[in-house]
Write a structure and sequence with these properties.
Structural class: alpha+beta
Number of domains: 1
Strand order of the largest sheet: 1-7-4-2-3
Radius of gyration: 16 Å
Helix content: 10-25%
Shape: globular
Distance between the termini: 61 Å
CATH class: Mainly Beta
Number of strands: 9
Number of helices: 2
CATH superfamily: Cupredoxins -  blue copper proteins
Largest sheet: 5 strands, mixed
Order of helices and strands: HEEEEEHEEEE
CATH architecture: Sandwich
CATH topology: Immunoglobulin-like
Length: 158
């Protein structure tokens, strides 16, 4: 009986450790989660798997850039047929978690900089960009990041 429980215990511990490593206590290297405010910029994001794994932003990040200090609300809808995540981090954090997910595909995420979405589900995350200038929006579920399900942007200069 004990041998049966060992893999479950290891998986649970890894999930907690990896979630803490990815999200940290204060968010990520690019900022932190905050409560939604009326002055937030708003982006509608679709997570799709129908014509390739991708995120689509409306407005686009090019037409409405994010500046350091901005508070942004992302309304994320999974329009696909499989689960997706929407995470906010830097390149190193996103790639590190993607690799962890390949090694531990049952790992679940919880943290201020990531939302997990079932098909057709919509969730919000409000973020204050106060850290590094290079931003990665990514889905780190096994194979999704490698399939191109990430979007990068640079914080715009004021």
């Amino acid at each position: 009986m004990l041998n049966y429980l060992r893999p479950l215990c290891i998986a649970s511990c890894l999930s907690v450790i990896c979630s803490a490593a990815y999200a940290g206590d204060h968010g990520s290297a690019v900022g932190h989660a905050v409560k939604k405010i009326s002055k937030s910029k708003v982006y509608h994001v679709t997570a799709s798997d129908q014509k390739g794994m991708r995120f689509d932003f409306s407005p686009t990040l090019e037409s409405k850039p994010i500046h350091k200090g901005d508070t942004v609300t992302f309304i994320v809808k999974n329009t696909g047929f499989v689960d997706h995540e929407f995470g906010i981090d830097n390149e190193q954090g996103a790639k590190k978690l993607s690799q962890m997910m390949l090694q531990n595909p049952m790992m679940k995420h919880a943290g201020p900089n990531i939302v997990s979405l079932k098909p057709q589900e919509t969730k919000e995350i409000t973020w204050k960009f106060s850290g590094e200038e290079s931003i990665y929006f990514s889905c780190t579920l096994p194979g999704h990041f490698a399939a191109g399900m990430y979007k990068t942007t640079q914080l715009a200069k004021h």
